[in-house]
Fold each of these.
Amino acid sequence: MAHAASVAARPGRGTYRALVHRKKLLLLALGIVLVLSVIADLGLGPARYSMREVVLALAGSEEVSNQVRVVIWDIRMPVALMAVVVGAALSAAGAQMQTILNNPLASPFTLGISAAASFGASLALVFGVGLLPFAIEYVVSINALLMAMGAALFIHLMSQRRGVTVETIVLLGITLVFTFNALLALVQFLASEQALAAVVFWTMGSLTRATWPKLAITTAILAVALPLFFRRAWALTALRLGEDKAASFGVNVRRLRLETMLIVSVLAAVPVAFVGTIGFVGLVGPHIARMMIGEDQRFFLPASALAGAAMLSLTSVISKSLIPGSIIPIGIITALVGVPFLFSLIMTNRRRAW
Amino acid sequence: MVATLQLNDVGVRYGRQEVLSGVTTPVMKGGEVTAVIGPNAAGKSSLFRRIAGLLAGPGEIAIGGVSSCGVCYMPQDTSVNTVLTVYESVLLARKQGGHHRVRDDDLESVDEVLADLRIESIAFRGLCELSGGQRQLVSLAQTLVREPQILLLDEPTSALDLHRQVEVLSLIRSLSRKRQMCVVLAVHDLNQVLRVADRVLVIDGGTMVRCGPAEAVITPDLLRDIYKVDGRIERCSRLCAQVIIDGPAAH
């Protein structure tokens, strides 16, 4: 009895529960920011609608005209939701890359996966070369996907070699970025004027390519990947204590890394294949989540996905607002918005992030 | 059933290079503490990693009377680079291989181990903000919270002050008796070895050179042959002896 009383009086358990509650509230706050951003995104465009009109149109109310409902549901909704799922997918992929490679610089963009996808897409756009010849309709996307997955697996295989350090992996990623950028430049050099314009626009990254089928595929992949990560949440968190420590807890580190990298490669490659190169979300999203919520994967993973989704959705709003009447490709805006935001977080956060 | 551990001609190879060979021990039982001693780079850490299953090599490691997650290893390197807090890190050690949900008994175990090691005051500090000694205590907490039956500790007190060394080694010894836990630990301080170890295993130059009861193994001959110092062993109390070092061995 005395033992039970002394255990109940210990502050650790209570403090931990309070911190978990705080993390849940932060996740809720991120979710609210995301919803508000999507509503704002739906209201913006050549014709601007108020938040009330958007909500009424979403509810199918007769108070708004049929035209408004069509614009919001059929034209703007796939683009707005694509921003959400692409942001979530890239950020979750970046978070897990940083976890399994134990590297704060790991992301689809910095490790050459996006560059590989761009090169794959350019092959289709310029020469009409398809890596899977039977899938003509999606040839650009499939080329990008296969090249991106190849790059991700190459990084993984190299990281498994003896004597390969964290720094080596980053260097390896940078060499991939330069290699694929050089190959992309070569393809652009050989391209016709029309094909060159298509490649340049593709590499800028644009959500206007979003369609319902592409949205459905990306959502499905995200819906499969996130629970798979979540099931491994404790093991993935243990990796942050070091490989030896995780292994000493009984984690099969080699298998966990391989499985995670396979999922990550699909998760990172599909959005890039559909909407082009969108940098920084995969790098910045996880860092925002880490600074807000810590590295317990049960909270870090959803926070990364929500932060990435909110970031890309807000970027979409900004890309429509900067020059009235035109939509700046979102890939340009992500870095311009994301980097100062991350920088301000780093400078104001007293806790060491990495 | 009491946990047992026995090594039979165990070795470690990195590629073609053999870094450790010929380690054979009698059966080490639950409730016993075995100290592994030897100079730097003798192969002690390789032996721990081999027993923990992190390295491959020849020989047989016979483990008896333990469940699948009953063997726990605390690595020598405790450096980390994470914003995880002490409490989170100990809890996640507890949760490996178990239920996904955090239950009350998980939190109770974490609270207990933090109290045993007297580190409750740093429970909600980030791991990367801690000193080397604090990190070592947290690493030990992560290992103990799993309630292992065989505990492998690679230099668990190397960064601790004298008071903490004595306290932690006493705790390990008492836990080994209380939980019938088989403990194997590497320690450099021979006085601490004499205080806590039932058996001593000496590794030098990648091979086992001696194995036996602590007071029979730690002798002036061992000091001269293995550590190249002259010294003597004196009984300082009814319970333990003490190593007195005179200086480097005369050639």
Amino acid sequence: MSSLMEFKEVDVHYGPIQALKKVSLSVNEGEIVTLIGANGAGKSTLLMSIFGQPRISSGEIIYRGEDISKKSSHYVASHGLAQSPEGRRIFPGMSVEENLLMGTIPIGMDHAEEDMRKMFDLFPRLEERRNQRASTMSGGEQQMLAIARALMSRPKLLLLDEPSLGLAPIIVKQIFEILKDVASTGMTIFLVEQNANHALKLADRGYVMVNGEIRMSGTGDELLVNPEVREAYLGGH
Amino acid sequence: MSQAVVSINYKKSVIDAVIAGLLALIVFGPIVGIVLDGYDFNAEPERLMWIVLTVMAGRLAASVFFQTSKGAAFLYKHSSKEEGVHVLPPGHKSKLRWIIPLTIVIALLVPFIASKYILTVVILGLIYVLLGLGLNIVVGLAGLLDLGFVGFYAIGAYGLALGYEHLGLGFWSMLPISAIIAAIFGAILGFPVLRMHGDYLAIVTLGFGEIIRLVLTNWTEVTQGPNGMNAPLPTFFGMEFKRRASEGHVPFHEFFGIPYSSVYKYIFIYLVLLLVVLGVLYVKKRLTKMPIGRAWEALREDEIACRSLGLNHVLVKLSAFMIGASTGGLAGVFFATYQGFVNPSSFTFFESALILAIVVLGGMGSTLGVVIAAFVLTVAPELLREFADYRVLAFGMLMVLMMIWKPRGLVRMTRTGVEQREGNVK
């Protein structure tokens, strides 16, 4: 399996504070890879650095053989990387359809109708609410919309930042079911999560981040039974 | 819902009325109650008493009315219940569709039935419609608070005057050139403020407007400073609207063999302006339905989300500034040719505030609202000349009342939902 995206010894600084320390990880084609870690470990920083916000201070981010760490965010987005940002960040005053159309910005409107149909098949709840303003939907529906919006740009690699944030356990379960469906279409997914239990069960491989460093890595099942991980992230039982 | 028996709390109403009376005493007391007479003051308690009594009676009546079921329903209807854009069902057709052609027909008839005075007032109204539409793109759609919009208006107006004075170009050449120059200045303003939001953006744009005005005032070699400059009239296929044409030109009235009248030039300016306004309205309607229009609104709603979607925010912000600015430039050209003269005192901060008020009162992003508000705020003061002293007072009161009851403006921005299509999307 070839590597689709690879971080090579990436450092990120916020002023004098170092947020990522020599981070190296890779995502192979067709895989689900998860990055777990506590609050403030640097997970979201890592994800946003792919889009150049913040810029990395040293190292390389290789995507399909090309270093994208110095490219603009719209360049990255139009070359097959899409993300559902932390906290969903849907457009509250726009309807569901308009939100989905916003997702087509990097690739243009050519496939908009076809793709919207696919999204409605994947998320039937969104079709029911297609002309409703996004702010009037529940948190789970908004998260579905954020994922669907990211998928509208026909990404090669889907980046998800904490899709379980602020959702009831039953809704989290639904969201992860949907992610499994998305993955079964051959989509490569890089998932950043605090909910280690769900994330590791879904993922092929996982990385554990602590204080801006990759502390451990392994297959999802290996990490799930690792005593250290269990102690720190899974409540110790 | 059953009709609940409403009991009226008269005690509360009386307290409301007394408080309103005291406030009126404080507000009107120094202004109305004391009259300056030479070096002395004359107390005029009687006038003050009548004003305070009127306010108290009005407040009492309003308080009692709002406690009845009818009044409560009125309050509910006019309070803002939700935020944001109102999305209509797909295929929605307004019942008032016939108004648009009717308005255009009336607008075309105006110059032939109205007096010269009314015509000039309506021209001023249309100029402010253009300004409102331009600022509406920047503030209403893209959500970038611009307090220096008058700068682009000045650039358009001085563009015409300077082009005539120094390059010998007329109205028709300067109309597009001024719009382009204004757009370039829009980009010049846009670049440094790309990373700014809200208050900071407002301050920088405010400064920009003032810079333009101060340059026009002080660069006397080019702009003749506060003395102002002459601006040319438009020509009709080379024919001038003057009594006597300049060398080598034929005046309009001689060519058609009709007696000279100064109203012809206003009719002509009006018709050209009307065409430009209709054109801008059409372009704006198309733009809001295109991806760029949606991108402006997306940027207003959530800039971080836009970046994560890979929206090129530099391009989107600059395009909003440039298109808005060029519309302001067009308005400036018409203002200059309509006045026949420009000087820097026409382009003070008060103008910016007025244009912003048009956008806010009309409803951010709503085209119809902006058109109505532009006419209300420019034509009404002209028609109520006798009350000119109270103009700013009425203006302020209107603003306060609007912000309480209609914070989203006169006409809420609405959008029709996307039609379900045959074929791929059922």
